[in-house]
Amino acid sequence: MTHPLASHNDLSLDQRHALYTAAANLSAEFSGTFSPETIERFLRTSYDQFAGRATVSGFLPLLAERFARQRLRALARVEGKHDTGTPTVLFLCVHNAGRSQMALGYFQHLAEDRAIAWSGGSEPGERINPAAVAAMAEVGIDITGEYPKPWTTEIAQAADVIITMGCGDACPIFPGKRYEDWELTDPAGKTVEAVREIRDEIESRVRTLLEQLGVPVRGQR
């Protein structure tokens, strides 16, 4: 296997080793579904999405692997190579740092493994809004493991429902998708106290969405 980032001369030895390990992990997971070349291309382009953001530099290989895995799973669904029929929702906002991350957190918490959710931003920020993290922690949902990331074509195409939150014309439009625009206050720069109201409205909207999709929420059968 060639190194997935052989042309990146600025990588440390540890980063190169971590990315080689990531490529091996993804190749094992998607063996028989995608070629090594496709897997390495997705890993390389995923790495490049985060490379300019110093705040995540130490975690670049991990972020690249996680994002590449999500994109490959989406592509497999689009190409009919792995489509279980599980409802899939994409939450989009501008920076993928507040509203869409809280919606993702609630969706995953309430739906568990009965539905799939992703999130993305038209202009991803550097980190998740600390006030959003704190507000979600108050209701027992930990979103610290998430990170701002862009949406990609295969992720948007794989979604059954696309929920937009203030990204306007920058949000993707694909025929045949169900779209909803949630008019929510942007939590950027707001206190935890102010974010609580936004959080609670998001919970209500996510619960309604799950009901419409026929997905039982946590604690229901």
Q: How would you sum up this structure, described in words?
A:
By secondary structure, the protein is an alpha/beta fold. It has two domains: 66 residues, Helicase, Ruva Protein, domain 3 (Orthogonal Bundle); 126 residues, 3-Layer(aba) Sandwich (Rossmann fold), CATH 3.40.50.2300. Helix content is 46%, strand content 10%. It is built from seven helices and four strands. A four-stranded parallel sheet has the order 2-1-3-4. Strand 1, helix 4 and strand 2 form a beta-alpha-beta unit. Helix 1 runs parallel beside helix 3. It is globular.
Key terms for this structure?
Rossmann fold; 10% strand; 4-stranded parallel sheet; 221 residues; Helicase, Ruva Protein, domain 3; 46% helix; globular; 4 strands; single chain; alpha/beta
Put the structure in a nutshell.
The chain is of the alpha/beta class and 221 residues long. The chain has helices spanning 13-29, 36-50, 60-78, 99-111, 130-138, 153-158, 192-213; strands at 88-93, 116-121, 161-165, 178-181. The chain has a four-stranded parallel beta sheet with strand order 2-1-3-4.
